[in-house]
């Protein structure tokens, strides 16, 4: 958990999805085996650092829901599914986060919007070669010294961690 007067965001791009069925609508594409492995690795990493959400905002796409399920976080809440987060622009993600009620919020979404959103959050971006491209299953953990998400302003966060599972792109 975070101290009073703080909020934490765990921002996750979905893991690698399957392109086996070219006729399948994008929204319905599931994770491929590598995506499932990367999600499990990410879940272990999150749990090992006690980065556990009390609220989860998730795109309605199959691959984001499957990424969250494959994290295997014990005691984690059911995700709040939001169609607006499917291929959302940074402004849409910001609006969803400003309406959040949890102290530690996990948000799962898609590129290119999630990379742009991640870049808007910390005062100083993490020093990681993959941060700008935000590959599949990439995760930013950022803290804000605010009492409510409604007070969130861009470039005011403190990046705590940025993680990319080894079994991804």
UniProtKB/TrEMBL annotation:
Pfam families for this protein: His_Phos_1 (PF00300)
Protein name as annotated: Phosphohistidine phosphatase
Natural source organism: Frigidibacter mobilis
Lineage of the organism: Bacteria, Pseudomonadati, Pseudomonadota, Alphaproteobacteria, Rhodobacterales
């Amino acid at each position: 958990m975070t101290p009073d007067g703080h909020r934490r965001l765990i921002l996750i791009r979905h893991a690698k999805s399957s392109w086996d069925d070219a006729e399948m609508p994008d929204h319905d594409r599931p994770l491929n085996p590598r995506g499932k492995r990367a999600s499990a690795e990410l879940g272990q990493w999150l749990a090992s650092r006690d980065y556990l959400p009390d609220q989860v905002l998730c795109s309605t796409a199959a691959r984001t829901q499957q990424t969250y399920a494959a994290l295997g976080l014990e005691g984690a809440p059911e995700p709040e599914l939001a169609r607006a987060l499917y291929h959302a622009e940074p402004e849409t993600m910001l609006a969803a986060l400003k309406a959040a009620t949890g102290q530690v919020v996990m948000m799962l979404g898609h590129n290119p919007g999630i990379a742009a959103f991640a870049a808007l959050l910390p005062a100083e971006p993490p020093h990681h070669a993959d941060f700008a491209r935000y590959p599949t299953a990439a995760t930013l953990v950022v803290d804000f010294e605010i009492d409510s998400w409604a007070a969130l302003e861009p470039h005011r966060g403190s990046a705590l961690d940025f993680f990319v599972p080894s079994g991804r792109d």
